[in-house]
Design brief:
By secondary structure, this protein is mainly beta. The protein has 3 helices and 18 strands. A hairpin with a 7-residue loop joins strand 7 and strand 8.
């Protein structure tokens, strides 16, 4: 059993990947801030009240077996979710390859190859999701990446956080993008369910999942 059914049947999903930041304000109203890292993906998922216990009982049982200590793989690949994370670029997604070989630029990937697209088309657009290989980590693109007239290896892809994978010039990653990406997550908050008015379920709060890094 998987947590996937929770995402597939969500009433609402909140996604956060912001950094952990410490801030202080002096008596003179000067703001001092320090980025502490983090930037892991967090998903707050609300299931609708009124789901039928008789239908969802085995799913709940399976999720409770996973509880808050088992890592599971999930995706947001429902057709109805395409507006959230569909790939916005113009390339053939399965033909985009990148390398990461520069620790000096930890938030930058380098294009290695891409399907034939015109100079005025985009490899990525701001907000696209990409994953390094089949089981790598997921990143979001923070600005548009135009194909342009540059040599492919000169095209940089800026991402939202430092790349977790080790820098290695000999490793070429074929990307998964958009709805094809997957996340390894662990549930950190598991709401209590309640049966009411015969065969209906209500929930005490949201499921909260964190990416495992």
């Amino acid at each position: 059993m998987s947590f996937q059914w929770i995402f597939d049947n969500a009433e609402s999903i909140s996604i956060s990947k912001r950094a952990v930041v410490a801030q202080s304000i002096t008596r003179g109203n000067r703001v001092r801030t320090n980025k502490l890292g983090g930037q892991t993906w967090r998903f707050d998922v609300k299931l609708p009240d009124g789901m039928r216990w008789s239908t969802w009982r085995p799913y709940i049982e399976g999720s409770e077996a996973l509880d808050r200590f088992t890592v599971d793989t999930i995706s947001l690949n429902q057709s109805g979710y395409s507006y959230i994370n569909r790939y916005q670029g113009d390339a053939s997604p399965g033909n985009i390859q990148v390398t990461y070989n520069n620790d000096i630029a930890p938030t930058t990937l380098t294009l290695s190859s891409v399907s034939s697209i015109n100079y005025d088309q985009y490899v990525f657009k701001q907000g696209d999701w990409l994953q390094l290989g089949n089981d790598g980590h997921v990143y979001s693109v923070i600005s548009d990446v135009l194909r342009g007239n540059s040599v492919v290896s000169n095209i940089s892809i800026p991402v939202n956080r430092p790349v977790i994978e080790a820098a290695n010039a000999s490793v070429v990653y074929t990307l998964k993008v958009g709805q094809d990406v997957t996340f390894d997550v662990i549930c950190v908050e598991f709401p209590t369910w309640n049966i009411f008015q015969r065969d209906q379920i209500s929930w005490s709060g949201n499921f909260v999942f964190y990416e495992v890094v």
